[in-house]
UniProtKB/TrEMBL annotation:
Matches recorded under InterPro entries: DHquinase_II, DHquinase_II_CS, DHquinase_II_sf
Official protein name in the record: 3-dehydroquinate dehydratase
Protein keywords: Amino-acid biosynthesis, Aromatic amino acid biosynthesis, Lyase, Membrane, Transmembrane, Transmembrane helix
Transmembrane annotation, as ranges: 116-141
GO annotation (BP), single: chorismate biosynthetic process
Gene source species: Tepidibacillus fermentans
Keyword Membrane found: yes
Amino acid sequence: MKRKVLVLHGPNLNLLGKREPQIYGTTSLEELHQQMTDLGLRIDLDLTFFQSNHEGKLIDQIHEAMGVYDGLIINPGAFTHYSYAIRDAIAGTQIPTVEVHISNIYQRESFRHQSVIAPVTIGQISGLGMFGYLAALYFLADYFKQG
């Protein structure tokens, strides 16, 4: 049985491949989605992608995921550090969630060291580049098998 996973990207992630390539690499969001889709097919995960620069739109997607998706992967971008609203949406839906960051947020500016999202997730992946998203898929596939 294929499990359904919603992949959410927060602000500025639409600029992947163009924005600060020394930090975020040269892979575009579309290329990342293709890599994830290819892996999802191999490990029986059905993926849906959504990106927004707007906090409320991300919250709406999390709410609408209840009863539809088995898991959630989120890169909240800068919302990681202060969006109690996104945190509360994840906590309220109780969808198993993995937080992903392309860069190692703990090696960057001090304001990036705190995640208000992490305490309501089943895991956080930081600093593995685009592979972090693939690692999150592997993790969720294993999580589903365990549960």
